[in-house]
């Protein structure tokens, strides 16, 4: 009786799907979508007529709802020079590509995606801690806690393969 090498296309059976990986994948896709929208918006703001319309909108909204953090972020992005806006757009697209790669691999329940997500998530945690020390806020603390939980779960999974992973490894 020989043990076959794991197939690169082996996937869990329908009932063996890890629901937590599916949820993590969904959030990766959501993050990618938000970053694509930010990237497209930043590139649109390079155009003078769009930039002027956005400035007027940000000023009008800023007088009525100045406490919304997203509005402050949008106003800050709108104040950037065209070269900086292109960099924001490119950076947003690069991060979106990373999140789409992670999300797709996790959705397909691929082990390489778990490793990629561990490395990527762990690399962001020091920056999240730094941001939290600069200004303590619920969204920042929540992001750190969620990323730490994702990281802990994926490390646990990598160290303790589930039954479907064992079947894929052992035929």
Structure description:
- The chain is mainly α and 171 residues long.
- The chain is built from 7 helices and no strands.
- The chain has helices at 19-44, 48-64, 69-78, 82-107, 111-134, 138-159, 163-170.
- Helix 1 packs antiparallel against helix 4 and helix 2 runs antiparallel to helix 3.
- The longest helix is centred in the first third of the chain and has 26 residues, at 19-44.
- It is elongated and about 55 Å long.
- The relative contact order is 0.14.
- The model is unreliable at 1-9 (pLDDT under 50).
Count helical runs: 7
Q: Specify the biggest β-sheet.
A: none
In terms of quaternary structure, the protein is single chain
**Separation of the first and last Cα atoms:** 11 Å
H/E element order:
HHHHHHH
The class by helix and strand makeup works out as mainly alpha
Global outline = elongated
Helix content: over 70%
Radius of gyration: 21 Å
Strand content: under 5%
Q: Strands, helices and their partners?
A:
Elements: H1 19-44, H2 48-64, H3 69-78, H4 82-107, H5 111-134, H6 138-159, H7 163-170
Helix pairs in contact: 1-4, 2-3, 4-5, 5-6
Briefly summarize what is shown.
The chain has 171 residues and is an all-alpha fold. It contains seven helices and no strands. It is elongated.
